[in-house]
């Protein structure tokens, strides 16, 4: 690897971290006159807390933005370099930025939306396989955090299954990324895990999806 290639790779990774760090929930609140999601609920900037603070329509914008924070850096790395290891490093950098954003005091979201975005580029079939787990856990328990934890963990066996069926189409770096990415999301949910163990975790109110419990869209 020559110096120019190394510099390009490092620039892509640094750019991925900056992209992941963009606090979409905070920006949407600022530009629409909504409640800063950092001031209520979990204090996080991701989609679930944005739903509490901003209502369903603006929360949808936050979710899309968080997905793009993962899609764009990995897709750029694929188009510019085309090396799985660089894609993986950019994915990890984006998720790290989404969890520990340089723009909001290194405390922002949980990295779930951005992590899903990275996987939509790396291996979308794994998302399709793990999605039912995520949905079923949330619907049966009403804990979004538990759904995120179990859903991210489900990506690992999903990727192993895809690799076993079509190993030639799945670089080993992608398998490693799935494990490390899921671990990052679990670390970001440390406080949720503690509340789940002690029975004090906040349950998701499905009425928020209809806008009946939030003034964010009014």
What is the element layout, followed by pairings?
Elements: H1 3-21, H2 24-32, H3 47-54, H4 56-80, H5 84-99, H6 112-122, H7 124-141, H8 144-165, H9 172-188, H10 190-198
Task: Describe this protein's structure.
There is one protein chain. This protein is an all-alpha fold and 218 residues long. It has one domain. The protein is 71% helix and 0% strand. It contains ten helices and no strands. It has helices at residues 3-21, 24-32, 47-54, 56-80, 84-99, 112-122, 124-141, 144-165, 172-188, 190-198. Helix 4 (56-80) runs antiparallel to helix 5. Mean pLDDT is 92; it is low at 212-218.
Brief overview, please?
The chain has 218 residues and is mainly alpha-helical. It contains 10 helices and no strands.
Which properties best describe this structure?
single chain; 218 residues; mainly alpha; 10 helices; 71% helix; globular; disordered C terminus
In total, the number of domains comes to: 1
Average per-residue pLDDT, rounded, comes to 92
Number of strands: 0
Report the radius of gyration as a whole number of Å. 17 Å
